[in-house]
Amino acid sequence: MKNKKQLTIVLLLPLICFITCKNKEADSEATAYQIKGDTVYVSGNNILASKIKLSDVEIESHSKEVITAGTVQPIPTQFAYIAPPFSGRIIKSYIKLGQTIKANTPLFEIISPDFTATQKDFFQARSSRELAQKELKRKKDLIKNGVGSQKELEEALSALQIAEKEYENSYAALLVYQINPENMVLGQSLTVRSPISGYIIENNIVTGQYIKDDSEPIAIVADLSQVWITAQVKEKDIRFIHEGDNIEMHMSAYPEKIISGKVFHIEEAVDEATRSIKVLSICENKEQLLKIGMYCTIHFLHKASDFIHIPETALLQGEKDSYIYTEIAANTYLRTPVEVEALKNGKAVISKGLDAGSKIISEGGYYLK
User: Fold this and answer.
1) Is 0.70 topped by the overall pTM?
2) PANTHER family of this UniProt entry (predicted)?
3) Quick one: DSSP state of residue 244?
4) Is residue 114 domain-shared with residue 202, that is, in the same domain?
5) How many domains does the chain divide into?
6) Per-residue confidence of the chain (369 residues) as pLDDT tens digits?
7) Is residue 364 part of a domain?
8) DSSP 8-class letter at 180
C-alpha cells in the first residue's frame, strides 16, 4: 500500500510541474503587455517584445481593379453572314472551311430566275434610255428645221429624264451584287462574293442545293484579328471604368497567359434586372487564341495612383473590420482599422486608415490580440 502511494506521488510530480510552468508562462505573457481601449502597452526587455517587428509603410503606384466575368464576341463590322440574295440553285462553290479570303473573293455561284428578271429590267431600261435619247435628238432636229413644236421637244426631254432615272436605278441594283452591268450577259449566273476579308468559320454551301432568299445564312466570314470582350459591370463600380482604360484577361484555356486590351465603349443604359452596365473592350487576336463565346475573367485597371502598401503579415482581422497596429510611442501601439484595396505579391494595398510616414507592426501583431 505504501509503495502504491509513493508511485502515485512520483507520477503526479511531473504533471504538477507542467501546470505550474504553464501558469507562470501565462502570467508572464499577461504582464508582458496591457490593453487600454485601442492602445496596447508592451513591457520592454521581454520575450514578447522580441517577437514584434516594426516597419515603415511604403508608398507605391497601384491601379485600382474591378474584376468581373466576360465573353469573347466578334466585332460586328468584321463579321458577315452570307445568305443568297435570290432564290435559286447553287452550281459552284469556291471556298472551304477555315480558308483565309479577301474582300470581294467569290464564294459561290447561283442560277436564279429572280436574278434573270433583274437582268432583263436592266437591259430594258438601257434600251428605253437609248430610244428616248434618239427621240429627243429627232425632236431637236425637227425644231431646227422649223417643223417641230416646243411642246413635243419638252415631252421628249421629260421622257428621257424618266428613262435615265430608271436606267440608273437598275444599274445600281446590279452593282449591289458586285456585277459590272456593261459586261453582263443575259441569263448568266450570279457570283456571290465576300463583303469583308477574314476566315471562313462556317460553310454550309452544297453544290446543287436549291435555296430560298429567306433561308438561313449558308456561310460565315469573320475577321477575328481583333475581338470584343463583353462584360457586365456592377453599377457601383462603373465610376472606376473609362473608355481607353487598360484591361487584363485571364482565361481557363490559357492559365499562364495574360491578354491585354482597352475599354472601347460603355453602354449608356443600366440593365434593370441585374443593375449592371455593359462594357465593351477590344483585344488584339493575331494568334487566334480567342474563340467566339469563350469565357474569361477581366481585370479593369483604373489609372495608376499612389497607395500605401504594407506587408500582409501586418494585417489582422477583427469581427467587423481589418486592422493593424501603429506605433505611437516606444512600445506603445494603437489598434487602427484600415480599408484594404487589394492583396498583391505579399503586400496589402491600403485605401483608408493609414498615413504616409506611419510605423506599424509588420510581424507579431497577433500576439497582442
Assistant:
1) no
2) CATION EFFLUX SYSTEM (CZCB-LIKE), CATION EFFLUX SYSTEM PROTEIN CUSB
3) T
4) yes
5) 3
6) 445 444 444 455 555 444 444 444 444 445 677 888 888 888 876 787 778 888 888 888 877 778 999 999 999 999 999 998 889 999 999 999 999 999 999 999 999 999 999 999 999 999 999 999 999 999 888 888 877 788 888 888 999 999 999 999 999 988 888 888 888 888 899 999 999 999 999 999 999 999 988 888 999 999 999 999 999 999 988 988 999 989 999 998 898 899 999 999 999 999 999 899 999 999 999 888 999 999 999 999 877 778 889 898 888 888 888 999 998 888 888 999 998 888 888 888 888 888 888 898 888 888 887
7) yes
8) -
